[in-house]
Amino acid sequence: MIPPPPPRTARVSSVRAFCRRLLESGDLASKLAPPKGPDGKPLDDARPGPRLEIARPARDPELALRTGVGRLPSPRDLGAPFARARCLATFAHHELMAAELFAWALLRWPELPPRLRRGFIGVLADEQRHCRLYLARLRALGSDLHEHRLSDYFWKHAPAIAASPHGPRAFLAAMGLTLEQANLDFSLVYRDAFREAGDEATARVCQVVHDDEIGHVRLAARWLRRLAPGDRDDVQRYTEAVPFPLGAARAKARRFDADARRRAGLSDPFIEHVRSARSSQELRGTPRAPRVP
Ligand SMILES: [Fe+2]
Ligand SMILES: [Fe+2]
């Protein structure tokens, strides 16, 4: 029997208890508490425990996940304060969902190599920090997360990852090599748009996120290679593991930053595979709608 989750205010000392608190508490403070023990030391992960499958994160009513939330404002529209606030709320919430999903992965695959688990904890802490940075900018504009409808976009992919026969490789391909790879481009598109709108402080946050995202993509690329059996190239490893409907056409924006991908350790054939990928809409001849991961 699974023990009840720790109370919201509980101090945690293990990675398992930390991840459970993050996913089973609905409030933002519990979700953004950094992965440190009571004494400020790294969390213990010597005994990750049995697999724990959590279908959806707990969310307080003001942070409820919704399907079918409207489109993100175009970079051209950021002259309007409401559009800037809408973008910042969306980006902050993407970071929050990313932190939740890394906790979800740590609970789901306790057998992962300790180095990869440490890598996931490091990325999770970055996603929490990114969330706080965007929230600070959102609050500086006089708005807050609970004033916006929050999309379940990232969580919508969790069932396909969970059902994949490729296990953690599906997670690495979906999160690191699709959603985070795409953010290498989107972070710079919106950095420049915020800068043009006169919001240099947010532009700097977008740059921080971009720089950290290179490390996140690198971690996924490295471990997808290590965990994939047999003699395959990067394109084959990715194509095999990425769960539908994610795929190479969703791993980028129109502005394609090949240099950031090289710095993340992606091979030239894989970069070219993503650059040339066409969405099903494009293959049907209909124009591709702007989309942000
Ligand atoms: Fe992030
Ligand atoms: Fe990331």
What does this structure look like?
With 293 residues, this protein is mainly alpha-helical. The relative contact order is 0.11. Helix 4 packs antiparallel against helix 7 and helix 6 packs antiparallel against helix 7. Strands 1-2 form a two-stranded parallel ribbon.
Task: Describe, in short, the structure shown.
By secondary structure, the protein is mostly helical. It is 55% helix and 1% strand. It binds fe (ii) ion (FE2) (2 copies).
Topology:
Blueprint lengths: L14 H10 L3 H5 L32 E2 L14 H28 L5 H27 L9 E2 L6 H6 L4 H29 L3 H28 L6 H8 L16 H6 L4 H9 L3 H5 L9
Parallel strand pairs: 1-2
Helix pairs in contact: 1-3, 3-4, 4-7, 6-7
The structure holds fe (ii) ion (2 copies).
CATH class: Mainly Alpha
Judged by helices, strands and strand pairing, the structural class is mainly alpha
Main beta sheet, described? 2 strands, parallel
- Work out the number of β strands: 2
Shape: globular
The side-by-side strand order for the widest beta sheet comes to: 1-2
CATH third-tier fold name: Ferritin
- What are the distinct ligands in this entry? fe (ii) ion
CATH architecture: Up-down Bundle
Number of helices: 11
